[in-house]
Design goal:
Layout (H helix, E strand, L loop, with lengths): L5 E6 L5 H11 L3 E6 L7 H4 L1
Length: 48
């Protein structure tokens, strides 16, 4: 059985810093799941 550690990040209107955080967590061995918590469409590029 594989042990997976998940970082679940709810994000509302995130700054581009969210991308850096997600990348750092991923490098640290986490499976990263970011959830759009109701942000407006102008924030979609950050989530992509």
């Amino acid at each position: 059985m594989v042990n997976t550690t998940i970082a679940l990040i709810p994000a509302y209107e995130p700054t581009p810093e969210l991308v850096n955080l997600a990348q750092a967590l991923s490098r640290g061995g986490f499976t990263v799941v970011v959830v759009n918590d109701g942000s407006r469409s102008e924030y979609l590029p950050t989530f992509r």
